[in-house]
From TrEMBL, chain A:
The protein's name: Trafficking protein particle complex subunit 5
Signal peptide, first to last residue: none
Function: May play a role in vesicular transport from endoplasmic reticulum to Golgi.
Subcellular location: Endoplasmic reticulum; Golgi apparatus, cis-Golgi network
Gene that encodes the chain: TRAPPC5
Superkingdom in the source lineage: Eukaryota
From TrEMBL, chain B:
The entry's keywords: Endoplasmic reticulum, ER-Golgi transport, Golgi apparatus, Lipoprotein, Palmitate, Transport
The protein's name in its UniProt record: Trafficking protein particle complex subunit 3
Highest rank taxon of the organism: Eukaryota
Coiled-coil segments: none
GO biological process, one term: Golgi vesicle transport
Family label: Belongs to the TRAPP small subunits family. BET3 subfamily.
Main function: May play a role in vesicular transport from endoplasmic reticulum to Golgi.
Organism: Furnarius figulus
Amino acid sequence: MALNELHASAVPINELHPSTLVQYCQRRVASVAELQARLAQLGQHVGLRALDALVARERPGRRETKVLGVLLFVKGPLWRALFGREADKLEQANDDERTFYVIEREPLVNTFVSVPRENSSLNCAAFAAGLLEAVLGAAGFPARVSAHWHKGTTLMIKFDEAVIARDKSLEGR
Amino acid sequence: MSRQGGRGTESKKMNSELFTLTYGALVTQLCKDYENDDDVNKQLDKMGYNIGVRLIEDFLARSNVGRCHDFRETADVIAKIAFKMYLGITPSITNWSPGGDEFSLILENNPLVDFVELPDNHSTLIYSNLLCGVLRGALEMVQMAVDVKFVQDTLKGDSVTEIRMKFIRRIEDNLPAGEE
């Protein structure tokens, strides 16, 4: 019964955002890039407002100060809140200490979008990217987040230099 | 995909908040894109309609309700099963018209409007108009033409939110009037 209820409350958000938001934005933009930018903007609107509630629930009384901490928060509680389960993988880029990937092997679209359009999983990911960017910024880890296809649907997080520098200086303590 | 019992209500709450926030982002975007509230209301209704025509299948599949024999049964199913399933609330049914073709759904609380305030310059915005479209679209797919509108709204200062549903006629053909 509990599982049913969870599934039920997950339906409207999944029904709403990939399909409705995407369709709406698609009619008003001239290119895929613009579409993704629009969706990212909507995601930011949501992310900014969702962070406090999420943190209050998941990490009461503690604020993440290290990059690893915030990344684990993203992979776990944030992903669970958005998609119902943890992200598949968290990786660091080989050649760049500022860049991390959150990877989801299954496309980030659920079964309610009846016609899978080619870009639909990337579009949902664009929304998630905007959301994540707002969350990281508001949490004190300014970054650029973008959606890509790399071993699955991937959100690429590129932290500002200052964030990495600060993290290094914290390492000693 | 495993979930622990304790986490159940927390994720559900989070999902519901994300839903509310996502809806808010959508309405905000619409307000930016369209100059006036009336157009936003129409868009919300249209989007709701498109959701409703697809949602009905999901609803019928998951709820296992059979065909409703009259409008009263329909009202019951909408309030007690559909609203519960998708929004987690059970509105009450009141104000039946003498002919039995009109009734009101009273929502004590509306998850779409948690944390929402209507600014003064949007006093004619029907914030939750998406719901009207959803109901209209879903019922059209089961051969019922209805008129759905908000007559009271907590966002506008009323004590409850009231949706008035009126049965217009049975739809005989199966031609879907898609608005896509």
